[in-house]
Fold these 3 entries.
Entry 1:
Amino acid sequence: MSDAHSPATAREQTVGRPPAVVLCLLTVFGPISMDLYLPVLPALTTELHAATSAAQLTITACLLGLAIGQVIAGPVSDRFGRRRPLLAGVIAYILTSALCALSPTIPTLIAARFVQGLAGAVGIVIAQAAGRDLYTGGKLVRYYGRLTVIAGLAAIIGPVLGGQLATITDWRGLFVFLAAIGVMILLACLFTFRETLPERDRTTGGLAQTGRDFRRLLSDRVLLGAVLVSGLVGAALFAYLSGATYVLQDIYGLSPQDYSFAFGLNSLGFMVFGFAASHLSERWSEQGTLVVGLAMCLTGAAGLLAAAVLHLPVIAVIGSLFTMVVGVATTTPPTTSLALTDYPDIAGTASSLLGLARFGLGALTAPLVGLGGSHNALPLGLVTVAATLLAAVTYVVTIRRRTTAPSHDIAASSQPLPTSASGT
């Protein structure tokens, strides 16, 4: 069968720019939910009379929701299509954002944030899975690069906008703003997003089939390695998201507005390097790009640990954070492509594993950086070094040790994909 007649290619030729833009916008649920209120997290801690670690649990709860929600949404979208679960998830996100704004105590806010994460997870997993429905080969890697760029852009806008909004409203107003963003995305989905997974290509068999699909995925050493590497560098990134606001504001004295601009600089780097990594993966090597990204992650994390131990100036901290963050961005397109390329028939389920690892491990590490209190940067350095070092070891043990197969090479992945009754 020629590539021109493969189902994936046929759908790729029919997708227009507006649906592609909407798919990219779905990736903002993760960064915007996390980043918008980071500049006011210390103020939230004070107003609700909470400990630093308790306030950081609002981040952990959202991350857990984003992780668990993807494991649910991925298989559901493989079975029922992408559009209906997406619309339900966006509506739920709007409602739970409003509930966050009304929360009177830290425990209530933690619970609301968990449900908000569950709802936001639907958009993230469908953005990745629908892209696999529509694209193959080099175009697929470029698409994942665009997702990384949009996530970076949202991460730039989020804290900067949050810092500016903090001058005119409190943290509750920021959650109202999140609900408004959800409304805009809902309208965009209603009017421009069409179903990308035809009924003939959907999975059947219920929970038993879902279990078989997960076992099939986890038996693939390269996929498992890509998922774990992505999750571990993501854990370092979420440790940064959780701890940097306290380090830069409480230790180094940055204002919420100054912090938002420092955060925006890192997010700009995330966007630029994510875009560059997609092209580098396509034209050079997925695994080579991944190694470069891991090296940057390790360098940045080591710099953070050195800054904490030696009490280096703020420029050393910001430089180390920047190096680590752009390293995470560099690893994102190749790990996503390595994980999803060979599984067009269960792209939603495969994507959910990536989300579970990224947000689940992030949820575990986020509270650890607060154990030393708001005036101690050492936990942030230790957590990021441990996570990035484990990512490098995982790469060596899983992906690198396996003999490179054509199915994981960009040139080969650009060739026609085999089709089946249940595949795209």
Entry 2:
Amino acid sequence: MMKKIIIGLALLLFTACQAQESVSKINGITLEAPPKEISFETFSKMKQISPSSIALIPYAYGGSITNPILQYNHSYQWWGETVKGTKKCVEYADSLGVSVMVKPQIWFAGGKYTGDIQCKNNEDWESWEKKYTDYILLYAKLCEELNVEYFCIGTELKNHTIQRPDYWRNLIKQVRKIYHGKLTYAANWDEYKYVDFWGKLDFIGVNAYFQLVGEMAYTQKDIEQGWDKYLAEMKTIVKKYDRKVIFTEYGYRSISKSAYKPWESYVKRGYDEQSQEESLALFFEKVWKQDWVEGGYLWKWKTGITSNNQNTSYSVQYKSAQELVKKKYSE
């Protein structure tokens, strides 16, 4: 009798663990790199939405799209973009009991789209790639030193990943030699299908600014139907490479028609926090629940926001969407 009870309890425990694992997600938020050093108290305010993971972005300056350079970890940069700032924020995250993804990213002059990067010839590409490798390995070593759980080897470099995939395979090998956490790459929503080295990484990383609807007035049903196409496409890539998806970025601005061209971070449309909340709600209902979605990182948390000043950014702070995200992340 006792043996049956023990076996029964073991089965119940196994089933409970399986159920917990099946619903567990990376409930992430991206911290906008703070311009100046912040305190633990300021950092800890992100707990208002109950994240399980925080993404940190040590930016590099890329110069011109067609004549790229690479400068990083310089004194002129924001504190949160440097090794010093990144290290302190990882320590803060450890104190909060949340995981970290370090996600190096390039900012080109004028905010030009990184996916359009283009060197003139092979020699220029190789010169730039040497600098990029040094940049990535610097932060890979830091992540290994600090036991960072996730590391992203690049963000939205479409032209480069498509034209020179062998470079990326070699970079992954170099990173794996010094870093033993989980790896991904943050492909733009119109890029990830053309990346052919997902099998060398642990996750398929997608920045989820998908074009879901047209410019005309639309309904929630229209957004839902817009997702159907992209979900089918992502599922095909998931099966091909046997990897789950992490949304390395996702989010919507608090503007009218927030689901229309959500990557447009500077376009001016009227303040509308309800539109932001509705687009996020449908994302959670339609996309987040997919069993091949590992989770993702909401774009983004700004340390300088202290009230609802009706800013039209992606931030959900002091907006109706904040409670929505908190509720979802607390499930």
Entry 3:
Amino acid sequence: MKVVVFGSTGTIGQHLIQQALEQGHEVSAFCRDATKLVNPSHPNLTIHLGDVLVQNQVEEAVSGQDVVCIALGAGKKRKSTVRSQGTQTVIAAMKATGVKRLICQSTLGAGESRGNLNFFWKHIMFGWYLKQVFLDHELQEYHVQQSELDWTIVRPGAFSDGERTRNYQHGFSPNTKDVKLKISRADVADFIVKQLASTEYLFKTPGLSY
């Protein structure tokens, strides 16, 4: 499949590109700085340099793709709105180019999955320390759900640097309390790559955690 990744130089995006290439997909990486990519010379990798907030640049990358993956992050900028604003730009570009399938990485705790969180994540991290990040994810999800595209929103727990285990929980009830609220970046990418050719979670918001 032809897949474009926004947030391609981020910690999820890098794993996502690597694993999609391993599966034989044709991958486009949209980024500002190609030197941050792990294997920029891979024969099945196309690089699109641009700004995710500039629609004509995004349209060029989206045109002709089968699937669009959003794994946008803001680094250490806790008050950035790049997730919601960038997602809006990507959605507009998809509509302009006729591309329908969208997979967007958000966070466990958004929407009804707030019920999965413990006190620390609900009140300390998302209620105070990462409040703006959390609100930006909530707005991002709103844009996706209102997009009229064929969307899936993936809600992973806190990221860890572990290996790809392929052994994790997904699609659990928002009332489930026996999840560890963490998952490796490699396993987040594993789950997203599995959705490229799947409709199991079409128009759904699966949680993802050990």
